[in-house]
């Protein structure tokens, strides 16, 4: 597929897409036509029909700036992820800059279900960006949860919580003009009722799926602040559309526990997957495998880096993303061999040859750091 999809593709360019990809672009018949304002009952019914058509994914790769790009999404998919978000894309830059579109948004036919996430503070600009990607995704997502300083300076993400009329207009603009559903990702307010009012406003504006990060805008450190699953449960019970949870996921068992406690349809993971892209397949790092019954799973982060690099060779992405992933996935190994980390950091220009050699060097030095998996218990066969 093209890396820079056109919002109004020329039929003469159809040969750029395989017939299978063209089929995938056809939107479900249940989705409304652009410009129509539907009743809340109809929108809720369509929201659930779409979610079920996608297979009701439970294990979802969260949006991560510079980190949830195509090769990483595909790696996580191999190890159990059932859906994924793109990194946050800046809607204004996306509409204005071809180079940005080509580098920052890439996909392929295996990359589904897919949420394409934008930050925005102008409804028209957001719609223009969204129209460019709607043939290639299952949801266009609005980032309403980024708490970082850059979001404050740019007036987007979680800092739009101070301007709810603008948030409402962003959702309405997309809901009334796209052929794919609109989703939103939010953080909670310190006050529960404010959070519930916020979520209901998004639903009424046309949001078809809501992902709730159970921390406030000021609770940026996930290791210091526990996500509030109780607040997420309240949101799930207050809304009629599908709800996803984000926060406190260190292993696949946490996903199942979160779903039991909150009633959500699925769970997003970010930081855990960066270190261990095989988490959804039941693998754990040593830090989270101290319970009895966990054994060497026959896989390690060096293996995952090699798989990731092969995907990057097939689906090129900026080297800054590759560098970041290698740092995260080999963090435990670098702590054992800091000299190799220093060599990596000193390498200003990366190549695949250098990175494959780096993994080989770590393995030759010994001190392998395995990923762990729960030992299977053989059950006696009935006579």
Automatic annotation (TrEMBL):
InterPro entries assigned to the protein according to its UniProt record, in alphabetical order: Aldolase_TIM, DUS-like_FMN-bd, tRNA_hU_synthase_CS
UniProt keyword tRNA processing present: yes
Pfam families: Dus (PF01207)
Gene3D superfamilies in the cross-refs: Aldolase class I
Required cofactor(s): FMN
DUS-like FMN-binding domain ranges (all copies): 61-345
Name the record gives this protein: DUS-like FMN-binding domain-containing protein
Record's compositionally biased regions (Low complexity): 14-34
Domain of life: Eukaryota
Species of the source: Brassica rapa subsp. trilocularis
Span list, region Disordered: 1-37
Organism lineage: Eukaryota, Viridiplantae, Streptophyta, Embryophyta, Tracheophyta
Keyword field: Flavoprotein, FMN, Oxidoreductase, tRNA processing
Amino acid composition bias (Pro residues), ranges on this chain: 1-10
Protein's UniProt keywords contain Oxidoreductase: yes
